[in-house]
## 1
Amino acid sequence: MVFPGSDGTLMHSQTLGRAFHTHLERAGLPPMTFHALRDTAATLMLQGGVPAHVVSRILGQASEAITLSVYAHVTRGLEAQAAAAVQAIFG
């Protein structure tokens, strides 16, 4: 269990959401959903060069294809970076 309640049982999702928003405010961060952390983590991993199949496994997705389709906007940016790298190598 990642987020147990004060009594050791499963924390209710609304309780988690309220606590999350309180911590965001204290940290001076903009409002966001808890799920946005998952998207941010996946985006940063892909941008950092973590292979899509590894990101897919970490996210618990059924396949790399799902990860690549959900985060296609990230992979398009990575394709541009790859093209620029090849251009730099071959002039």
## 2
Amino acid sequence: MDILQKMNEELKTTTVVITHNSNIALMADRVIKMNSGRIEDIVKNQFKKNAFEINWS
């Protein structure tokens, strides 16, 4: 996740990560929550976390 984060910042790219791990969402600028293929919510993070700040356990 650290490498994806660095690429996103340095290359100014958009990165899409699809996961069931809600901790990863703490790293995102924007989180799109879906259920059965439909968008349920879109949230913008005010305080993004660094990959090393995420609790992976």
